[in-house]
Amino acid sequence: MKTTFDVSDKLFELYHRVHRLINQSMTEEGVSLARSKFLFFLNKLGPCRSTDIACALNFAPRTVTEAIDGLERDKLVARQPDPEDRRAKIVSITDVGRIALEAAEHPRKQLIEEIFSALDDEQLDQLHEIVSKLVRRTDEIRERREQEEAVRPAAAAEA
C-alpha cells in the first residue's frame, strides 16, 4: 500500500515533468509557459495595470514589472499611460503577442492530449474527481489558516 507521501511525491514528479516538457515545446514556438501566462491573462481580460496582473497571478509586483519589460522589448505587449493615473501604465497584448500566444498554445494542447491519452475515459473521470477533491480540501485548509491568522492579531491585541 502506498503512503500519502508516496502519492504526493509522484504527483509533484508528474507536475514537474509535464511542466518542463510543455515549457520546452512552447519555448520552441517562441513563448515560454511563464510568458504565456501573462499573455493569456492580457488576451482574456484586456488592457490593465501591472498591479492588477500581479494580484491576479499572485506574483510580486517586481516580478511582473521585469516580465513586462521583457515582453515589451520583444513587442509582445505595449504600455500606454493610464488616463486615470499619470504615474501608472496600462499594459496590453499586441498583435505580435497574440500570434505568439496562439503558436505556443498548439504544442501545449497537443502534449496534454498525448500525455492524458494514457488514460481511458473512466480513468480520466476518476482522476478528475480525485484531483477536484484534493483541490477542495486544499481550499478548505487555506481558508481555515487565513481565519486562524486573522484571529491571532485580534487575540494578541486583547492580551
Q: How many alpha or pi helices?
A: 6
Approximate shape:
flat
Task: Please report which band the strand proportion falls in: under 5%, 5-15%, 15-25%, 25-35%, 35-45% or over 45%.
Answer: 5-15%
Q: Which strands sit side by side, in order, in the main sheet? A: 1-3-2
- Compute the separation of the termini in Å: 48 Å
Number of strands: 3
| Quaternary class | single chain
Which spans have pLDDT < 50 for at least 5 consecutive residues?
A: none
> Mean pLDDT score, rounded?
92
State the helicity in percent bands: over 70%
Q: What is the CATH top level name of the largest domain?
A: Mainly Alpha
Structural class: mainly alpha
Domain HTH marR-type: 8-136
Pfam families: MarR
InterPro entries: HTH_MarR-typ, WH-like_DNA-bd_sf, WH_DNA-bd_sf
Keywords: DNA-binding, Transcription, Transcription regulation
